[in-house]
Specification:
3 domains; homodimer; about 350 residues; four-stranded parallel beta sheet; alpha+beta; nine-stranded antiparallel beta sheet; Rossmann fold
């Protein structure tokens, strides 16, 4: 059993790893970060860190042996890495969650296999399959690499008149998936946790606005019907149960409004704490980071109640230069990730504002 | 000017330094802890640490030169140490705050010099002075070492019939102060912050219950009249202004009830974040730790509004063995300090419970 004083190993040294490490410290755990980049933001708040490649078997074994449980902040953990780690320490969430979420085709197949609606999709290995997929799915549709896409990278829209070959070229002729374009009203997400004993707890549904394909603002509660929110949570629970998932996960969904009805279409899942859950840090009884730590340690989940109407805004690139103005704003909670350089598109921090509930 | 990305130096590696370091990290600061003890709890959440004695001049100079501002988690920083540090980096709170608060006689003289009520007191260097002081102040009274007392250590009650010489012996014949015993109804404290520009912000008055001279429970709000609370805050502000104080400070007071009137008597001041302010972590808009970081960096103070009725309970020694039960309790917020050994009397963590305000 994991007890306070044990060591949590975290794969990945970015802001998610950093915030998981701080939550772990609050609960009396030590942390050990494994990341390839020197000066990773998470190193600054961890008792120990290892700088090595995710392919460095000796370093991975040494790391796994030095900790009591391993978790990760990103879904693109190579399966060989996951295998090496789990031979020496419990890995949570499990390797299956990684496998499913790091390949868009597996992911969509898995989700639709559960009877949950996704965009229509088809695998694409070459131009012939792309033509076939386009014929079946129609346009507009979105061609996405099966692996390593995030924040809009590795995807391209194919509209009527566009050249499919050029699109395939644009994504590097990688194994891909063609997805029908979903004409959604808004994007929402469920951030939830599943414990070792199967206990499940979701935060309130939030709605997300993107800017240049990067999350810009999360608002909670989402402006949807209660039965829609209930359905979203059931979808997340179904997915978590099917993966025998342990930890926090996020399910991103499209909200489609047709003939006055609300419909949910799953876009993707993230087997980790999620940017759209940052509002829980200060905005909910238990933050998603603490919740994740509780779950991966086999501890009981915390309360997920919301503390008000919450708005979380990402500070991207030079947005973070506004830190002084934000510090002076009553009720604004500033979180900065300790990144040295405010590169364009780089998540530098976020600010959470909590308002009294609307009557 | 201190900016995110700068380094905050913290003298002392206990739980207070640890929680200051976590608050600093949230605001994008790096931290460097200086402490003599190996395995200090704060090391686990800091980017850098130095293990050296507070008398090690070379180590102190190296430390001060590596940071942008220095603060501390305890008032017994030797004045020579403070002098060395402040020659190489800004020190906040300042050396005067240290000098006044680490000597009970200076402290009481300073406070009563401001026209603020304290217990009657007199300095005691030898038996003759003790006899004189007892004659003037009467019994019961409390003989305390001028320096290095905390959590009831270095003090002894002298009741009618007790042998004064034995009492003086018991505190090691150290330079001392005799204080008249205050027959108080309860102990309250003001935790407040003063910014570089003189801005002042207090948290709501809290009341404190001790067990074996160690803080056991803090409750907020304190059950006192509004005008009493107002007076307590004015006392804290007067003290902070007189010290040109920058940072969070705590003022401990006795509440005396006589003839239906409430009266405040200052017991002591702490030039630092304070155990009776732990409730602000999760219980107030801005925690005392973030507030302290804001102040010592010269940044604007945060909002101090309380988020409900709050109870903070210390986990002393084996109290912390209850961690699993506390984790399972809805609404209980567990904080553990990462200390390996649950020695008796050792502060291992605390738990905060936040309730809806009484109507």
């Amino acid at each position: 059993m994991i007890r306070p004083g044990s060591t949590l190993g975290i794969l990945g040294g970015g802001q998610l790893g950093r915030m998981i490490a701080m939550a772990a410290a609050q609960l009396g755990l030590r942390t050990h970060i494994f990341a390839p980049e020197e000066n990773s933001p998470a190193f600054d708040v961890a008792g120990e860190h290892t700088i090595a490649s995710y392919e460095d078997e000796a370093a991975l074994v040494h790391f796994a042996k030095s900790v009591d449980v391993v978790t990760y902040e990103f879904e693109n953990v190579p399966s060989a890495t996951a295998d090496i780690l789990s031979a020496h320490a419990p890995l949570a969430p499990n390797a299956q969650a990684l496998a499913v979420s790091q390949d868009r085709f597996l992911e969509k197949s898995f989700i639709s296999g559960l009877g949950i609606e996704t965009a229509p999709f088809a695998p694409v290995e070459n131009e012939a399959e792309l033509a076939e997929a386009l014929a079946a799915i129609g346009r507009p549709s979105v061609l996405k690499t099966r692996r390593f896409g995030y924040d809009g990278k590795g995807q391209i829209m194919i509209r009527p008149g566009d050249d499919p070959a050029a699109a395939f070229e644009a994504i590097g002729r990688s194994p891909a998936i063609l997805e029908g374009f979903v004409s959604f009203e808004r994007e929402v997400s469920v951030v939830a946790a599943r414990a070792k004993d199967g206990d499940f707890a979701a935060y309130d549904l939030c709605e997300n606005e993107h800017r240049s394909h990067i999350l810009d603002i999360t608002r909670v509660p989402a402006d949807v019907r209660p039965e829609t929110e209930e359905q979203a949570v059931l979808i997340a629970q179904k997915i978590a149960n099917a993966l025998d998932y342990v930890g926090v996960l996020a399910v991103e969904l499209f909200l489609v409004r047709e003939n006055g009805q609300e419909r949910l279409v799953v876009n993707e899942i993230a087997p980790r704490v999620h940017n759209s859950g940052h509002w829980t840090l200060g905005g909910a009884e238990t933050s998603q980071f603490e919740q994740h730590v509780r779950a991966v340690c086999g501890w009981p989940l915390g309360a997920t109640a919301r503390l008000g109407r919450v708005e979380m805004r990402n500070l991207i690139g030079h947005d973070a230069d506004e830190w002084e103005r934000i510090l002076a704003e009553p009720g604004a909670h500033l979180h900065l990730y300790g990144k040295a350089e405010a590169r364009s598109g780089r998540k530098m921090g976020h600010v959470t504002r909590i308002f009294a509930e609307k009557p």
